[in-house]
Write a structure and sequence with these properties.
The chain contains 18 helices and eight strands. By secondary structure, the protein is mainly α. Helix 7 runs antiparallel to helix 8 and helix 10 crosses helix 14. The protein starts with a helix and ends in a 10-residue tail after the last helix.
């Protein structure tokens, strides 16, 4: 946050105050009234600097430990086959054990919902202003942020797009206006995706080409669109968006020797959109790193299932650390060291170039372009392991290679459970320290419950099945 404020400081004292306003002005729930003594949105947003400060407040919301700063990234991984509970695991353990509820022991399901809608509210307040000043870039970022958050919410509280043939199953409330009295009902997954795609496309007509990875721009919006289209199984659109990002020439894969820099270096060459965690924003032991490191809470460990998949010479297999204090046995002696800074300076990677290559590979596979899909898998795999042989598989075996590469490249970045469920596969934990080790597809438990607070204040809200 300190670095972001530096970009807008020196213009007006109000600008820095506005960052605070947009960081804290949203109340306990996005349905609650704004305090009467608060500055009105129209009064607060009257200059270019005001809009700049306001959008910084939106990004700050993404960094919360209840969002990208920890739980949003963590929870889908601990519900997968890549992670096992340590003996003393506490935080989020209900969800790793598949016994989570609307009143889980850390209020995780309620907090993710609340903090995500706070960001949507901030974006909507920006978009509610009619102005003659040139703030298109900031409005474009607000549209893109609103799209990203709705997409995140529909993935974690709604089943994947093809769960029903027409995506008519429960999604999440679509909120595009500032109305403290609204009590929105849940839209279908299809309706949410339509809104997400519309907002991203609106953003593309407004947003700049600036390639600072801490702010959304044309390339990062297209990368996120490629991900949305992949989840939707709109393969032609996913391919087109991924091609635009890769062919832009603005990004390159980090070298094999510098691979670990992705998770510790600010603004590395393949960062498309990442959350800036600096001295002000860092979450300390409440960051994602603290959930894995022994110097933090150390609640979660890498499963042997994932450790055994890394071949000799693969640099990704070095992002683990031996810790004999774990105790061995079923818990092993290995910790995740992908996020090595216990103070929380590791920037959460929302989307990076390797992911876009693998999105393109999956799109090409589904469009019948096997050789193109093979080449993209090779690009990612041989960066990690220069001696790896070229991929020659076709058919289902090629799809298996793509999913394997996604698992190895993106492990502990929050993608594994969604990769399983969108391919209609269950979770099978062979190295299991949980009570429940096998969860067959489909399962009501692959998504979170709506938090009880939301159920209590909104009579139009419907709880997810199974809770």
């Amino acid at each position: 946050m300190k670095k972001l404020i530096n970009k807008i400081s020196g213009k007006s004292p109000l600008i820095v105050l506005l960052v605070v306003f947009f960081t804290v002005s949203c109340s306990k729930d996005f349905l609650e009234l704004q305090p009467q003594q608060a500055v009105s949105t129209s009064a607060a947003l009257s200059t270019v600097g005001d809009f700049e400060a306001a959008v910084v407040g939106c990004y700050d919301g993404l960094s919360s430990s209840n969002y990208y700063g920890r739980y949003f990234t963590l929870v889908t991984d601990i519900m997968s086959d890549d992670v096992k509970l340590n003996a003393s695991a506490n935080r989020a353990s209900d969800w790793a054990e598949y016994v989570g509820s609307a009143t889980d022991n850390n209020n995780l399901s309620g907090n993710i919902f609340e903090y995500a809608y706070r960001v949507i509210d901030r974006a909507n307040r920006m978009l509610s202003i009619e102005t003659d000043i040139d703030v298109d870039n900031y409005l474009g970022q607000a549209y893109a942020l609103r799209a990203l958050v709705h997409f995140d919410l529909v993935r974690i509280y709604g089943q994947h797009y093809t769960y029903t043939a027409d995506a008519s199953h429960l999604g999440i409330p679509i909120v595009t206006t500032v109305d403290p009295f609204q009590k929105p009902a849940r839209s279908s997954v299809k309706e949410v995706y339509d809104q997400v795609i519309a907002d991203f496309n609106t953003a593309l007509g407004l947003i700049d080409d600036d390639n600072d990875s801490h702010f959304l721009n044309r390339n990062s919006v297209k990368a996120l669109l490629a991900r949305v289209y992949m989840f939707k199984e709109d393969w032609s659109s996913a391919l087109s968006a991924a091609n635009d990002v890769i062919n832009s020439g603005n990004y390159s894969l980090v070298s094999n020797a510098n691979y670990a820099d992705i998770f510790i270096q600010d603004g590395h060459s393949e960062a498309i959109f990442e959350i800036d965690m600096n001295e002000t924003d860092k979450r300390g032991t409440d960051a994602l790193a603290g959930m894995y490191l022994g110097s933090g809470y150390g609640d979660y460990l890498p499963a042997e299932d994932i450790l055994n998949l890394f071949p000799a010479g693969d640099v990704r297999g070095t992002l683990f650390a031996t810790d004999l204090t774990i105790g061995g046995g079923i818990y092993g002696t290995t910790r995740v060291n992908k996020y090595a800074n216990n103070l929380g300076y590791n920037n959460p990677q929302v989307i990076r170039l390797a992911d876009v290559y693998l999105i393109r590979a999956e799109a090409n596979y589904n469009l019948g372009n096997a050789s193109a899909a093979q080449a993209d898998v090779d690009m990612v795999r041989q960066r990690a392991n220069p001696t790896a042989a070229d991929v020659t598989a076709t058919g289902q075996a090629l799809l298996d290679e793509i999913l394997l590469e996604r698992r190895l490249e993106l492990c502990f970045e929050g993608s594994r459970l969604w990769d399983l469920t969108r391919h209609k596969m269950g979770v099978h934990r062979t190295d299991c320290t949980a009570t429940i080790c096998d969860i067959a597809y489909p399962s009501d438990r692959f998504i979170l419950a709506i938090g009880q607070f939301e159920m209590d204040v909104n009579e139009n809200m419907v709880q997810n099945p199974g809770y």
